[in-house]
Design goal:
With 142 residues, this protein is an alpha+beta fold. It has 3 helices and 5 strands; from the N terminus they run βααββββα.
């Protein structure tokens, strides 16, 4: 399976029983949760965990989620989730996600998040400092 961009963050997932909804497939909410967890793990890998965000007095908060579901996944399926920053402005960052089944390469879901960088004390948007802007520069990933 070829990643959708040159250098995405990759998370492998084995679908557990608690991810299954009443319809017998992975819950849509679980897909969103996996994407959010991957975004946070990627930020941490880049040296920007919650403690670091608190030190620099700014943090990302989600402003919008968009998800398109293409196929169902089931208990025991092995999935691969790719995520990467795709656009960055002064105080916002866009992140894309693609979730595939490993065995047959079928696209399960495609998502996009809009994150706002805000002051940790006021909650108001603020410009990303260079450390954050550089870490999430889309040119590094696409």
């Amino acid at each position: 399976m070829t990643p959708p961009v040159r250098s995405p963050f990759v998370r492998e997932i084995t679908v557990a029983a608690d991810a299954i909804d009443a319809q017998g497939h992975v819950s849509n909410v679980k897909v969103l949760e996996w994407m959010n967890e991957a975004a946070i793990a990627h930020s941490t890998e880049l040296g920007l965990d919650v403690a670091r965000y608190q030190q620099i007095r700014g943090i990302f908060v989600v402003r919008r989620h968009e998800l398109d579901y293409h196929a169902s996944a089931f208990q025991g399926d092995e999935l691969v989730l790719y995520t990467w920053p795709s656009e960055r402005k002064r105080s916002t960052a866009e992140r894309k996600h693609e979730l595939y089944r490993k065995g047959d390469g079928v696209l399960i879901a495609r998502g996009l998040n809009l994150w706002a960088y805000v002051d940790t004390e006021t909650g108001r948007p603020k410009r990303m400092p260079p450390e954050v802007a550089e870490a999430f520069d889309p040119a590094q990933f696409v």
